[in-house]
């Protein structure tokens, strides 16, 4: 028997068409609606229905739950730390040195490989959908949507800044002013293909920061992103003359922090079902905490 989501039409949604209800109220994408139509997966009061049919209060709309495929991602046993989970999404705590998803020559050992295996073991295997990514050396919160509709809704929250990402960074020097905003476009580096740089022809990038700890020669920052450009925080902080400690690409490695001291400390979003704001925190990993302790003793 095919699985369906079931919705009851409220009075305020009367006279919308089925298509309008799916797009505006349920936030299904046009592509998803096309797939549902091809599979006759939209039922109004138990019967197939045209998209332009108007709905009435108390009508029952049933929408087929489409089977997802893993798109070649190989499930692989491994340790994952689940910080939050509900019927629509998970928030995982990514350790440093692990990729979020296979890319380039790396096809195994990623957070997505391990999550795919976890879902397979539960008997709920489907597409692994990371909403955003972190650099290999950056630790902390990563959101994974469990289905395409949830992914679409969360992506809209990301675009409208309802979904917020908060970071911790330990940087070289004393940043001035102690709090502020960096609004500087980021684009390809003119000479180094793997790097990004402040570039007037690049895409707008906005980073908010505030000092939460000051040491002799180092500063602990809290940062929030209004945009999500590649290497954004690292490029912006280097632009201010305070590169992330341990960042070999935009700063310098150190013996006491052998990777970039950058951590995705929290994510906030609106619950997909009831709109309630939820904030999920990832504790500082041991190496980051030890680096902060080292700075306090310098």
TrEMBL record:
GO terms for molecular function: catalytic activity, acting on RNA; pseudouridine synthase activity; RNA binding. The active site is at 135. One of its GO terms (biological process) is enzyme-directed rRNA pseudouridine synthesis. Residues 89-239 form the Pseudouridine synthase RsuA/RluA-like domain. It comes from the Bacteria. It holds the Pfam family PseudoU_synth_2. Its EC number is 5.4.99.-. It catalyses: a uridine in RNA = a pseudouridine in RNA. Gene3D superfamilies: Pseudouridine synthase (3.30.2350.10), RNA-binding S4 domain (3.10.290.10). The keyword Cell cycle does not apply. Keywords: Isomerase, RNA-binding. PANTHER family: MITOCHONDRIAL RNA PSEUDOURIDINE SYNTHASE, PSEUDOURIDINE SYNTHASE. Responsible for synthesis of pseudouridine from uracil. Belongs to the pseudouridine synthase RluA family. This is Pseudouridine synthase. It comes from Methylomusa anaerophila. The gene is rluD_1.
